[in-house]
Design a protein that fits this description.
CATH class of the largest domain: Mainly Alpha
Largest sheet: 2 strands, antiparallel
Radius of gyration: 20 Å
Strand order of the largest sheet: 1-2
Number of helices: 14
Helix content: 40-55%
Oligomer: single chain
Order of helices and strands: HHHHHHHHHHHHHHEE
CATH topology of the largest domain: Serine Threonine Protein Phosphatase 5, Tetratricopeptide repeat
CATH architecture of the largest domain: Alpha Horseshoe
Number of strands: 2
Shape: elongated
Structural class: mainly alpha
Length: about 250
């Protein structure tokens, strides 16, 4: 099935469609399914021909209507983007971004071996390929990208959210462990709203991640406050600072 999808997506009638197209015309109605699900089929297994087709498809990923249709389908992360802005959302996306977003490990490996794409390049939202792989919670893809010379595992996207922020938010404990093993990952980083990885883990009840992050002795900026309170070691409450709250260690 992956070969069928990719052969179709690489055909001239689809390849030349503009990224501004929100609803595919009737003659190419299959483009929506192929765009959104070829990655799922590829993760089940890739033949040499399918891999070749995938690399061809990803070669100009930011110019493919399929990349835009995929973002629309997975709008859990881009809910704030208007339909008119979706085409802009794929600008800057490289083949490595596409493979990492879809977490197709053999393709990521092939692209890294080619060495033609900057592992720290950013798309329109400021996301690196590593951030996408981490955000998807795929431990093997994260491990592979972390092994690359010069990779920046702490680079934040446009809203100031680092890979650690996102995986703490989503509860990917295995990826959190990998990131916390790195000395170049700052667990204290705040996003534009003043939130940290730990505050996200607390909000969403990811207890194992709260424990991992607490052991880093990081600070949690609390919503509406201009100061922080440490988690470890705990301190006696200050009567004059009632707007702070202590997070129980798990």
């Amino acid at each position: 099935m992956v070969e069928i999808c990719l052969t179709f997506l690489n055909s001239p009638s689809v390849r030349d469609l503009p990224t501004t197209l929100v609803s595919p015309p009737a003659p190419v109605f299959f483009v929506e399914y192929a765009s959104c699900y070829w990655g799922a089929h590829a993760r089940k297994g890739l033949s040499p021909r399918a891999e070749s087709l995938a690399l061809r498809h990803l070669g100009d990923y930011d110019k493919r209507v399929s990349s835009m249709l995929l973002l629309i389908d997975e709008r859990d992360w881009c809910w704030h983007i208007s339909e008119e802005g979706w085409s802009d959302a794929v600008e800057g996306s490289t083949a490595l971004h596409g493979a990492a977003y879809l977490v197709i490990v053999p393709i990521i490996c092939s692209l890294l071996e080619k060495g033609e794409w900057d592992v720290n390049s950013t798309d329109a939202g400021g996301n690196t390929p590593f951030l996408w792989a981490a955000r998807k919670g795929h431990e093997d893809a994260v491990r592979m990208l972390l092994a690359q010379l010069g990779v920046d595992p702490d680079r934040a996207e446009g809203e100031g959210r680092t890979p650690l922020f996102w995986v703490a938010h989503q509860g990917h404990e295995g990826v959190v462990k990998q990131l916390l093993e790195r000395v170049d990952v700052n667990s204290d980083t705040t996003d534009l709203a003043g939130e940290t990885a730990l505050s996200q883990a607390v909000k969403h009840g990811h207890h194992a991640i709260i424990k991992l992050l607490s052991e880093r002795k990081i600070l949690i900026p609390l919503s509406g406050c201009d100061k922080s309170t440490t988690l470890s070691p705990p301190k006696p409450p200050d009567p004059g600072q009632r707007h702070f709250k202590r997070i129980r260690r798990f």
